[in-house]
């Protein structure tokens, strides 16, 4: 890639231009949502530094991310699912938590040891979740073992993290780092912070007795398949070197509604990554001293990461297997003729010919 000049960040260009396009795309959405219901809730199992846990994952509807309101990231459709008005009252947020507890009661035999709370924004941003609500949530889940809450790095501070640690929870902050490469984060994802901000957030979490979990995004728009693979390999390694970062969740980009990625996809300018690329990154970074997991959303579909259609389920199974066992040999057991096409794409796709194959 070429080196950017200062002018690309001027008004009307670069980030400013990205934000303008995204505000226009998002304004086409007119759905509205109930503030007393979470965006989503589900039960699953997850790998943590203390082993595999039953987990309850909650997507709280908090009014959405500040950055998304300004335009936001090129692939993020979450703000389209947020309630109107930009903030949700304490009582309503607690009603959402109760809804999730009821769901758990109905669906699971026992309480999950791990709670994961995402907000499609930042749980630690007090404009989304006020201090009163944050403390009430820490208390509600004090009988569990671990908690993960999502936040952009700016809002991570030692005191807030300590509220969860002091409630007796192993606490992790999930940060949507997307990539360790600042240039890719700015120009392809349109995210405003730097890798050094992530390092600072990890230091704050660690000072409180917590840790961080880095969320990486494989193949934002404008990268070739091979650039996307290299970007992720480099990013996993850099994250593994950050003190306090014990887990990386490396997730392939999918095409969400009301996003710039969707515009490109409709104009045949974007293809989500191959599942083979996900396998390649997991396999080649398995020697790093960090847990690396991946949860490809919409696998096998045009809008999600996919191979040829024949082998997608098998590749996905190998990835999920790797998530729990961290054993790279799981990838030796899955093969398909389409690997030859993927090889050719990795070798030949160039930025002027994206995507080479759909
Ligand atoms: S990816 Fe995160 S920071 Fe970016 S717009 Fe979406 S919620 Fe906001
Ligand atoms: Zn195949």
UniProtKB/TrEMBL annotation:
Cofactors: [4Fe-4S] cluster
SUPFAM superfamilies: Radical SAM enzymes
SMART domains reported in the protein's UniProt record: Elp3 (SM00729)
One Gene Ontology biological process: tRNA wobble base 5-methoxycarbonylmethyl-2-thiouridinylation
GO cellular component: cytoplasm
Entry keyword set: 4Fe-4S, Iron, Iron-sulfur, Metal-binding, S-adenosyl-L-methionine
Domain Elp3/MiaA/NifB-like radical SAM core positions: 55-284
Protein name: Radical SAM domain protein
High-level lineage: Archaea, Methanobacteriati, Methanobacteriota, Stenosarchaea group, Halobacteria
